Description:
The protein is α+β, with helices and mostly antiparallel strands. Helices cover 22% and strands 19% of the residues. The protein has a four-stranded antiparallel β-sheet with strand order 2-1-4-3, with helices on both faces. It is globular, with a radius of gyration of 18 Å. Residues 1-46 are annotated as: Disordered.
Amino acid sequence: MGKDSKPKDAKGKDAKGKGKQAAGSSGGDDGGGKGGKGKGGKSADGLGTCTYVKARHVLCEKQGKINEAYKKLQDGWLDNGDKVPPAEFAKVAQEYSECPSGKKGGDLGWFPRGKMAGPFQEVAFNTPVGAVSAPFKSTHGYHFILCEGRKN
């Protein structure tokens, strides 16, 4: 089943917003040959389709504390449009995180889809590599995540 068998909108794009030739594709792949483990194939940026993600995080029980930690990253890098270096993220995690992983700079290593609970998994698998998520709430408290990698 090739790309041409998918429903198209008036601009010739399929239901996922891809045109007849996906940006950045090479080698004539019709989308069915790469990986095959993600839901619906790979998107151009790889978000939401990988099987594993490598991440660091900061966890705080109180929203005020997570906001204070996040502000440190904003003031140093995010407000300038810069990526936060993992070593600098690790310093903030060691200072602020209430998770045992904070001692390791918030490093959670590689984990598969399905291992982390609800909102944490959603944010981890949808944050671009090298980016820091906005603070969010989970059943464990308030977090933000640095995505360091993704793979299938």
